[in-house]
Write a structure and sequence with these properties.
The structure holds 2 protein chains of 2 kinds. By secondary structure, chain A is of the alpha+beta class. Helices cover 16% and strands 38% of the residues of chain A. Chain A folds into 2 domains: 37 residues; 224 residues. Chain A is built from 4 helices and 18 strands. In chain A, the strands form 3 sheets. In chain A, strands 4, 5, 6, 7, 10, 11, 12, 13, 14 and 17 form a 10-stranded mixed β-sheet that branches. In chain A, strands 2, 3, 8, 16 and 18 form a 5-stranded mixed β-sheet that branches. In chain A, a hairpin with a 2-residue loop joins strand 2 and strand 3. The longest helix of chain A has 21 residues. Chain A is globular and about 60 Å long. The N and C termini of chain A lie far apart (68 Å). In chain B, strands 2-3 form a two-stranded antiparallel sheet. Chain B folds into 2 domains: 136 residues, Cytochrome c-like domain (Cytochrome Bc1 Complex, Chain D, domain 2); 139 residues, Cytochrome Bc1 Complex, Chain D, domain 2. Chain B starts with a helix and ends in an 8-residue tail after the last helix. The longest helix of chain B has 20 residues. Chain B is an all-alpha fold. Chain B is built from 13 helices and 3 strands, in the order H-E-H-H-H-H-H-H-H-H-E-H-E-H-H-H. In chain B, 36% of the residues lie in helices and 2% in strands. The chains are: A alpha+beta, B mainly alpha. Strand 1 of chain A pairs antiparallel with strand 1 of chain B.
Chain lengths: 274, 345
């Protein structure tokens, strides 16, 4: 016997008749259920009723509406630039109540893309009803998913946000041009990503919600949160970036500079319609 | 104790299950070999577990068909199998560096494909971290297949019998990147090479033993080479410089990590099937094993990040070289190289 087939036995499972499998599974599951019921986390929110809410991302550049390819904007150094591509990930959305209890929205991965208007309004379903006073999320994609197997939906590599030579997602992609850029055709290429220290660019955004007007999720009320997203925040905040010296980054130390900038100013909660 | 007994109970149960269902096997066409992922008994447990990618005959067959289909590339001339050839243990025979569409020359030698389920990182620089996503670079690289997943999906959707094959493999005719990548992985992850003479000797299979030359070579190998080319994979999967150039033309691992200490270092390659995977090294600079051994003997350069163990090279006289070569040839797994399950049919 040359091989030990520990693994194969699981593949054979699919060949079992449904009857047999359910009996055996039951036997297997009992102890598992018993064990897992010992682990109880008391600050997770569970509610009998669930509902939904929406988040709208309004793209601007320093207060002006973002228009791809046409409008000219200025960075903090006063340098002109245009934007042709602006897209980014929002993931792992977590809501908190005033009492400190939290609800992490499972499998929450969204790709927001200026060129696809539907992507700028996201709907989140199956949220326990209640009043929430804080929202936080990852700008980008958590560590584990950067190295996971083939994904679908927002994380599908087809979306052009996955690096094929150095596994991992581009968290924020801004491409455009500036007369100050020394790159070919004055291009600007900001592909921010990377999850390994010292060049980890995972950043979290969080904001308190005015307790007088919390996010009220009710079975008969589906509130809308409205965020202003300032694309120029990539270039100021902690380090003012000049396109003469930085016009291309795909991960690495310069991407960290940009991530530190946008962690501060990319998102602002403007208002909530309850 | 409680845990242990549960595990034990589950094991007993699953063995019982396996036994119980051996009667049900008439569901499978008796002509067809059930594709399995086999772990040789002298191997540790694999990194890739198939838990999110259930191995099936249909999934494997689809993955294999995609692997050998040149119509997926931009000029319809290059398939995965063009660069990863079975008779070369899925490396690229006689090609120093990969040769893609429009005769474009890549910068690196195509590595062999086997025992990938034990690897945690892929490519010479370890840039790719999951077997399922490792075909993506070849598909999109301007110098390899130069296409994109959208084009491939559109092609597959409109080309019989692909929709039917996706249905057999995944339950519906939907075709998306995940299904393409998962089926390709059912093919690549099943490529296990563990039936070389070396393996049979290690497993003490009857009728197999090293000749005195091979044994001398094995002992030399353990003394001089295993610190990097560790058994049973003949690599410890670390990244090293073995002093090919004073200043490497390819930045290697530092391209991924950005660290200057990683400049010019590459993954220690496996030596299994080495008889058939030439030319050798990340840029395919050596055509035969004599050149490789002479490199260790007299050609090691004082590269900045040269591994300290190679500071003075590895002195090898002619008979030592012959012994090592004889041992290296015991790593050839002809059952793998000739296995028709993996061949283009």
């Amino acid at each position: 016997m040359t091989t030990v087939l520990e693994h194969t036995q699981f593949y054979y499972l699919s060949k079992f008749s449904k009857m047999k499998i359910s009996q055996y599974l039951l036997a297997l599951l009992c102890p598992i259920i018993l064990l897992s019921s010992c682990k109880k986390s008391d600050d997770d929110i569970t509610a009998n009723t669930k509902s939904s809410f929406t988040i709208e991302f309004e793209h601007q550049v320093n207060g002006a509406a973002l228009a791809l390819n046409t409008n000219t904007y200025k960075n903090a150094k006063g340098e002109d630039f245009k934007i042709n591509v602006f897209k980014y990930y929002v993931s792992n959305i977590k809501l908190s109540k005033a009492d400190g209890s939290t609800y992490l929205i499972p499998e929450s991965y969204f790709l927001i893309d200026e060129s696809k208007s539907a992507s700028k309004l996201i709907t989140i379903n199956d949220v326990p009803t209640g009043d929430y006073t804080k929202i936080e999320y990852t700008i980008g994609v958590d560590y584990a998913r950067n190295f996971a197997g083939a994904q679908t939906g927002a994380l599908d590599p087809i979306n052009g946000m996955f690096w094929t030579w150095n596994s991992g997602y581009i968290f924020v992609k801004l491409e455009g041009s500036s007369p100050k850029s020394t790159a070919t055709s004055n291009m600007l290429t900001f592909h921010i990503g990377g999850v390994v220290d010292p060049n980890n660019t995972i950043r979290t955004f969080s904001t308190e919600i005015n307790a007088a007007n919390p996010l009220r999720i009710r079975t008969d009320a589906k509130p809308n949160m409205h965020f202003i997203v300032n694309a120029a925040a990539l270039f100021t905040g902690t380090t003012d970036i000049s396109f003469a010296s930085l016009n291309f980054t795909m991960g690495g130390a310069n991407s960290v500079l940009v991530a530190n900038n946008y962690a501060k100013g990319l998102f602002r909660l403007d208002h909530i319609h309850n | 104790m409680w845990r242990k007994s549960i595990v034990f109970a589950m094991l007993v149960l699953s063995i019982a299950l396996m036994y119980a269902c051996s009667k049900n096997e008439d569901v499978i066409n008796p002509e067809e070999t059930k594709i399995t992922f086999s772990v040789p008994s002298n191997f540790p447990s694999p990194a890739y577990q198939f838990e999110d990618n259930q191995l099936t005959n249909a999934g494997f067959a689809l993955g294999k068909k995609l692997f050998y289909d040149a119509r997926l590339s931009a000029d319809k001339s290059v398939s995965c199998g063009s660069c990863h050839q079975q008779f070369a243990a899925f490396a690229n025979l006689d090609h120093k560096v990969s040769h893609g569409v429009d005769n474009c020359q890549g910068k690196r030698n195509a590595p062999p494909l086997f025992n990938l389920a034990w690897q945690k990182a892929f490519f010479w620089d370890g840039g790719v971290k999951n077997l399922e996503t490792s075909p993506l670079n070849a598909v999109t690289d301007a110098c390899e297949m130069r296409t994109d997943i959208e084009t491939i999906i559109a092609f597959l959707k409109s080309t019989a019998p692909y929709p039917e094959l996706f249905k057999q493999a995944f339950g519906s005719t939907d075709i998306n990147s995940q299904r393409i990548l998962k089926s390709m992985t059912q093919f690549t992850a099943v490529l296990v090479s563990g039936n070389s003479k070396y393996d049979k000797v290690m497993r003490k299979e009857s009728g197999y033993s090293f000749s005195s030359t091979e044994l001398a070579g094995y002992n030399l190998f353990k003394e001089k080479c295993t610190s990097c080319h560790a058994e049973p994979f003949f690599t410890d999967f670390s990244y090293k410089s073995n002093g090919l150039d004073l200043v490497s033309a390819d930045e290697g691992r530092s391209h991924i990590t950005g660290l200057s200490t990683d400049f010019g270092i590459f993954r220690v390659p496996t030596l299994r099937n080495i008889e058939y995977t030439g030319p050798y090294m990340h840029d395919g600079r050596f055509y035969n094993l004599d050149e490789v051994l002479e490199h260790y003997n007299s050609g090691v350069k004082a590269a900045t990040n040269l591994d300290a163990r190679l500071k003075n090279g590895i002195s090898l006289n002619e008979s030592e070289k012959e012994h090592i070569k004889a041992f290296l040839k015991t790593l050839t797994d002809n059952e793998f190289i000739k296995n028709t399950l993996y061949s283009e049919s």
